Amino acid sequence: xxVIEAKALNLTFQSNDGPIQALRDVNLNIEKGDxxxxxxxxxxxxxxxxxxxxxxxHPTSGTLTVNGMTPDEARKARAYGYxxxxxxxxxxxxxxxxxxxxxxxxxxxxxxxAERVRKTLDLVDLSGFEKxxxxxxxxxxxxxxxxxxxLAFDADILLMDEPFGALDEIVRDKLNEALLxxxxxxxxxxxxxxxxxxEAVYLSTKIxxxxxxxxxxxxxxxxxxxxxxPLDIRDSAxxxxxxxxxxxxxxxxxxDD
Length: 257
What we know:
Strand order of the largest sheet: 5-6-7-3-8-9
Distance between the termini: 34 Å
Keywords: ATP-binding, Nucleotide-binding, Transport
Organism: Donghicola tyrosinivorans
Family: Belongs to the ABC transporter superfamily.
Domain ABC transporter: 6-237
Structural class: alpha/beta
CATH architecture of the largest domain: 3-Layer(aba) Sandwich
Radius of gyration: 18 Å
CATH topology of the largest domain: Rossmann fold
Protein name: NitT/TauT family transport system ATP-binding protein
């Protein structure tokens, strides 16, 4: 079942120096339950495309549907949760208070809010931290709290814009493992922006390789790795082969440019 579908998608920004084409002729189909990573050089349109899905940017031409709706309709229907590069937690609110915020805005009852906070904290392995403040948590724990906030209203789609990019490699590895477990438990459809080839290969069922601006898709790689993936799978020949294809796709995009 197709959850996100883009056809001949183009987006051009107007600037003082003239028009800038951020996306060109993007065609992509994302199925229910897919974990799709977008990878490419800075400025290639990865985040722009994610923002189009979220209804935060509007394509110049072409079509884009989310659950059969326009992105704006999907946003109003609470079809997705969005995790930004920075955790973006309010320092004056507890972790529980940060997770409750969208639920308060949406008008959930206090009892429902409490249950959803409890459930999502458990999902991201932060049970017991509800009354802590963001400054009392490590960077990795703050980002997990941010993921919990995006999961709180139980949207089917989770959009993640380089959520682990600022973290050190050890913490990043742990969060990659935790995210795969969370995905297995929730069966969400995930769109994930990254600059890391190993991260893209480790996490994804599908890897979308993009070229420098204007952003075009140079390759869509269907992963042959099993859904259960210990970290040491990254040493396997199959993993290395997929990573090589991603690297070749990135190189081809630069050559075409």
